[in-house]
Every structure is written in C-alpha cells, then in structure tokens.
What does this fold into?
Amino acid sequence: MLNLEKLEEKLDRALENECQESLTNWLFKKREKSYMALLGIGSMENKKEIKCEYLMPSEDVFLENEGNDFPIINTYYLMAA
Amino acid sequence: MKRKMFHTQEHQKKELETPIMCLREDAWLGEAFYFWYDEEDAHRWGHSSKKRTGSYEVYEADIDCKDVLDTVFNEEHYIFWLKQIEKVAKKIIKSTGEKPTLKEINDYFKERATWDEVSGIMFQDLSNNHTFLLVKPIKYRTKTRPFVYKKRIQLAVYNLEIVENFVLLTTENC
It folds into this structure.
C-alpha cells in the first residue's frame, strides 16, 4: 500500500532544495539527451562538401483535396540546407 | 489486488519470457513496461504501432497493483497525482519558463523525489479512433462530435517484480 503522505513529503523536500539553476540544468540536460536519442546510435561525421540542386515541380507543391480551402500556389522551393 | 493486463509487441522469433521495456522518447510516463487494461486496446495498438514484422503478439500477465499509483480507479490516488503534477509543473515553469511534458514530470518524481516505492502508474486517455464506439456521434447544426465513453487505460510498470504469469496469448497479422 502506497503511503501518499510520505511520497508528498519527499517531493516537497526535493522541490524546496531546487534553485532556478538546478532545475533549469536538470530539464535542459534531459531534453538534450532526448533530442540526441532521436538521432539514434552512432556518431556524427562532417561531410566536406554536399552539392545539391533541387527544384520541386510546381504541380507537386499543392494537392487539392476535398475540404481543403487552400489555393493552388504556383511556386517552387529550393531545397534548404 | 491483482489485475490481468496485456502487453503488445511486434512478433518475435522467440516467444518473450518477460515484457520489453518501452524506451521511446514519446512514451507518456517514460521508460517502463507498458500494459493495457483492455485486451481490445492491446490489439488496436498492435494493428497501429507494431507493424514492422507484419504481425504482432499480445501477452497477458497478472499484475500485483498493491504499490501502483492508480489514477484511474482510485479517487484518492487521482487527486494526489493531479496535485503533485501541477505542483512540479508550476515550479518548472517558474524556474525555466518552459512547460514540462508529463514524462519529464514523471522523471522528476522518480529521479529527484526518489519515488522508488511506486511500482507503476495506472493512467488513462481517450482514443482518437472512434470507429469502435457503439454510440452514435452527437450531431448539432454542422458539427458532429463523437462521445468517447470508453477510457483507454494503461499501466506503466517500473518494477518488474509485480508482473507474474507472463504468457503469450495470441499472435495476429497486422
């Protein structure tokens, strides 16, 4: 049977001991770890040069669907970095 | 109190003897062994998210819920959980200017408040899949709103010792 009072005491004590810096560091380290985990296992390797030129055909940019009020836009996107 | 609950995994070459810990970053309550309360939800999860090998497995187990924080069926636990979540969230927002995720709050409970005695947390949400509901959606003027009367209940287990009689129930194609 869980002792809720004891759990609350432990939590309150932990929160009392936090300062802005400790909590910010804890949260941002956790988020950094989380973002890194999204990249998977391995290490990053810098490529010397990547050349890429890509023009998206205008007819592929927008597809008109039922219930879609967006206008068909004739435009193109250069591929971002 | 013991509950029979269900664990879904992609079909494995070898039958599992214990559940697999969920390490996904988007797991609501962090790294844990997740179980479904309702066998139907275990199958829906298999169909929607365990498709990689073309089939999925549903295991059943008896879970000792004595040291589980039961936010679904236990009113006292629910009110307690809500209070603690908002307490931590307010402190984090005040200190960092950022809203925490539920996973981060739960990590705070475990890591900073050392809630080691909590063997698991039972929680619920409502499914976005309305096709299985047996009640007709409410129509009012131009709007149609389904009433999701059925809770989707899960248990995040942190202590594997509370899981007993873990056995394969069925293997199904996705």
Chain A touches chain B through 24 residues (CB under 8 Å). Chain A has one domain: 4-61.
